[in-house]
Specification:
There is one protein chain. Helices cover 4% and strands 50% of the residues. By secondary structure, it is mainly beta. The protein has a domain of 249 residues: Beta-galactosidase, Chain A, domain 5, CATH 2.70.98. The strands form seven sheets. Strands 7, 12, 13, 15, 16, 19, 22, 23 and 26 form a nine-stranded antiparallel sheet that branches. Strands 8-9-10-11-27-21-20-14 form an eight-stranded antiparallel sheet, with no helix packed on it. The chain is globular and about 55 Å long.
Amino acid sequence: MRWLWIPVVAGLLVVEPMAAEELVDGRRSIVLKGRQARLVIDILGGSIVDFHLLGHGLNPLRWANEGPSDEARSMSHFLCLDRWGLPSEAEAANGMPGHGEATKVAWAVLEHEPTSVQMSADLPMAGLQVERRLELAPEGAWFYVVETVTNRNKLGRVYNMVQHPTLGPPFLDDTVVVDSNATQGFMQGGSMPNPEQPSVGWPNAIKEGQPVNLRHLADDHDPNVVSYVIDDEIGWVTAVNAAKGLLIGYVWRTAEYPWLNMWRRVESGKPLARGLEFGTTGLHRPFPDLVGKGRIFGRPIVEFLDASESVARSFVGFLAEIPDSYRGVAEARLNGRGLTLVERDGGTTMHVVMPQEFRSR
């Protein structure tokens, strides 16, 4: 980290950190680089726009990356805060955007080292502040994020927080296979008061009465948003492109993020985006509907943060090289050393190192 000396009154000096920003694709960015991986965070919106192996070069997190260089916006892996989905009509009239303000503001860089960064963002309409600590493995191919949300309002309020990792081409094509330990779910778009009907079980969904397997995406993205709960203490999701020799995955604690929301988009007959969205809610509706419904499948769909209260949540993202015969992940187990990935159909077992802080939480 570099330091900037700033003169103040009475001839005193104070020392303030000066972030080592870089321009990546013309945008203000923070670049972290270890021995195995490189990660880029966009300052205007806080999105993680690049995560790739140094020896591989393919970035799975590439979606909506092209656009004005001075615009704060959602890209690749972004944070939905203070909500997931649309505001109410009254909130929209007051300027609240869909998915909240976290990607509509510039993030401040508080500390920066070669493989770590601490950032923060203030959400003026929501009255929330979020502080993010992100560590990229110096020797491995994972990154660890802890985000702390603080309610700056004088009164308590409801909110939601959803991580929105989004896969795009060239990693995303019709051969990509998605796996998870998700269980019961439902298709978005159902009517109140029971939008969770009919229910399905991962990886299944329903379109016009016909089954759809969400492990795959070819030329039809309907149903384009399906939300699932996870019964285990640890939630995980992986995406595999065996032909390109790469796996990307995420792991988190379901006490913090009980929902996994699968978003899919096709354009011109080809996969354009796959959202692997884990968070505090599984209902893509404004707060009045969430408060009225309360829970789905026994899980909360809205959170409450009291005045001046802070809540921290964490997750790990990781990459792994795989053979071209890899069939997907049947099971992922967190143990004392890291994450063990068991391949489908009796295939190989692979170990992914995880940060000790996450393993011991």
